[in-house]
Amino acid sequence: MNMNDQKDLDLSALFIGDKAENGDYFKKVMSDLIDEHVGWRKNYFPKDKAMITPEEQSSESFIKTQNHMKDVLAEVSRRLRDKSVPWHSAGRYWGHMNSETLMPAVLAYTYAMLWNGNNVAYESSPATSEMEEEVGEEFAKLMSYKEGWGHIVADGSLANLEGLWYARNIKSLPFALKEVVPESVSGKDEWELLNMTTAEIMDLVAANGDKIEEIKNASARSGRNLNKLGKWLIPRTKHYSWLKAADIIGIGLDQVVAVDVDDHYRMDINALEKTIRELTDKQIPILGVVGVVGSTEEGAVDSIDKIVELRNKLQKENIYFYLHVDAAYGGYGRAIFLDEDNNFIPYDKLEEEFNKYNVFTEKGNHIKEEVYNAYKAVEEAESVTIDPHKMGYIPYSAGGIAIKDIRMRDVISYFATYVFEKGADIPALLGAYILEGSKAGATAAAVWAAHQTLPLNISGYGKLIGASIEGSQRYYNFLQGQTFDVDGRTFEIHPLTSPDFNMVDYVVKEQGNDNLVAMNELNHDFYNKASYVDGNLYSKGYIVSHTDFAQDDYGDSPLNYVKSLGFSEDEWRKAGKVTIIRASVMSPYMNDKENFKYFTSSIHDAIQEYLEDIVK
Fold first, then answer.
1. Is 423 left (phi over 0), alpha (psi -120 to 50) or beta?
2. Are 547 and 580 spatial neighbours (Cβ–Cβ below 8 Å)?
3. What's the longest Cα–Cα distance across the chain?
């Protein structure tokens, strides 16, 4: 498609479809691609002797073996059909962070898988290694990194681990510089060394490039000075991967500090500043701060702009921290704010641009200004996690990471001569700069194909992200005020908070109930009815997910919501948690008013049925 035609892009053409409406097209393209692969095999030295003869193919054992393989694959098909989650459903699946996957990504993945490229080394995967290099550049541009770099990883947990790896090594480099080239940091005491900016550190490393291996060997990778690097601050909405990362990377769980979140489940900036000042007053440095863009439980977007503003203020007081943005879920959302030249669109011009590209089906204030400001400030972070297999609509497994300064990758690099040659051009060196070893080239092909079909700006992914956001807002508005009568008992739906992104949470509460433990049991029973737990999944007209907001994790941030439901603070203390019904609204079809309206009666009837079963 010519880029000039992008505003006419039709999302419905890019998915197989809820009822396989594009199934014939999908089969034809897949068949054509397989024919090309088969032809490629035949045409590589076509005069070579065939390894499998016609006589062998007609033998009894050959036929018997193939028939057995067919039976095995039939059993695979049966198991998948019987026990797979219907992610593709337009208006019946409202659960985990998954949905229809993009047809170009599925086709490219399947096709590239036939070549079985291993992107750890260019010689193993010239085509897909080049695709991954281009994808990494696109990740960096999506974050508005001018001198950035990125790559694909298996998932967000590994990307987060890699982000902490960067922070740990960079924070330790001033000590290494003092040991190897002491003149480069002369006059700085230990506190000043621990609070140098990432840019300052990378400039010094670059200036002493001839000694980079000595400097790296004296850094945290040696095991020295790990206990001096300080605390890693994360919001209470953190993903569990951060605890694992701190464990694996060697800084230890004792160095991880959870910061309170506010009523909107965003990191509380006042609490963050208070925590930093309490620590630094004791001469405990801050290794780094994690801001979350799209928390996996609430879809909350932390105020990255306020975190950056705080860092700038503290920097004047000789306090500096590494900033990582965990946008595994919400990272692709940045595309909705970028024009076709990758410029961040001014907030007062957004609606005009949304109308130009038909991002939303109806006019309205779809994007909160505080969310806009948070996304804009992401470009100030040193590194960002972004998962194509979430809001990129790519098949598993496809995570990703982008770094602001390409020079940062040198602080974690390792070289193995049998895999790649130091001094060679990227992407031959990809494996030297990443955590993983062997990795599927098919994943790179899938992400590359999706990005080529849907550019990472308002004209492409922006439209897909917009469809998801508008669908979530319809769902949130629908749930508000819903009531159900069951044998003279009235049950109400209470949404948690208006979504920052596309996650909608709610609880079911019986009128007159003042026992939080009882409400939690009701919602857990409701989840059992509306999930794989109780009965045949394919018989469910409405499927959801769930989570617990527990005091140990969330502190008292859910307390105001619990009180708004009519429960006392004593009930909150006694229950220790509130059980939440959770929905990641990723369907590309529910933005349409008529499509959504079609399913509302089914959703209402399913909720009524589940509640009747529970009451019985």
1. left
2. yes
3. 83
Query: b/e per residue, 99-131, with b = 16+ CB within 10 A?
Result: bbbbbbbbbbbbbbbeeebbbbbbebbeebbbb
The 3 state secondary structure assigned to 190-231 is HHHHHCCCHHHHHHHHHHCHHHHHHHHHCCHHHCCCHHHCCE
Domain boundaries, the chain: 134-466, 468-615
pLDDT tens digits, 290-312: 999 999 899 999 999 999 999 99
The Cα 610–Cα 571 span in angstroms is 26
414 catalytic residue (yes or no):
no
CATH fold of 134-466: Aspartate Aminotransferase; domain 2 (3.40.640)
332 in Cβ contact with 461 (< 8 Å): yes
DSSP assignment letter at 239: -
Alpha-carbon distance of 465 to 367, in angstroms, equals 11
Do the bridges between strand 322-327 and strand 483-486 make them parallel or antiparallel, or are there none, so unpaired?
Answer: unpaired
Q: Which of 1-10, 261-270, 528-537 has the lowest mean pLDDT?
A: 1-10
List Cβ neighbours of 293 (8 Å cut-off, separation of 6 or more). 301, 302, 304, 325, 326, 327, 329, 330, 331, 333, 374, 375, 378
Q: What is the mean pLDDT of residues 518-542?
A: 91
CATH superfamily name and code, 468-615: Aspartate Aminotransferase, domain 1 (3.90.1150.10)
Report pTM.
0.95
The upper half-sphere exposure of residue 144, i.e. CA atoms within 13 Å in the direction of its Cβ, equals 17
Q: And the tokens for 524? A: 């857990």
The more confident residue out of 263 and 486 is 486
- Residue 103 φ/ψ, nearest 5 degrees: -60, -45
Catalytic residue among 418, 433, 506, 527: 418
Nearest alpha carbon to residue 237 among 531, 501, 597: 501
**How far from 291 is each of 421, 555, 594, CA to CA, in Å?**
36, 18, 37
> Is the pLDDT score of 387 beyond 80?
yes
List pLDDT tens digits, range 49-108: 999 999 999 999 999 999 999 999 999 999 999 888 898 888 999 998 889 999 999 999
Query: CA 34 → CA 188, 259, 582, 597, distances in Å?
Result: 63, 52, 40, 40
Does this chain's domain 134-466 share its CATH topology with 468-615? no
- Determine the Cα–Cα distance for residues 592 and 598; give it in Å rounded to an integer: 10
Residue 371's Cα: distance from chain center in Å? Answer: 17
Nearest to 396 by CA among 590, 165, 152, 160: 152
Helix/strand/coil for 267: strand
Q: Is 63 exposed, middle or buried (0-12, 13-18, 19+ CB in 10 A)?
A: exposed
Instruction: Give residue 196's pLDDT.
Output: 98
DSSP secondary structure string for all residues of 404-423: SBGGGGGGS----TTT--TT
Question: pLDDT above 70 covers what percent of the chain?
Answer: 97
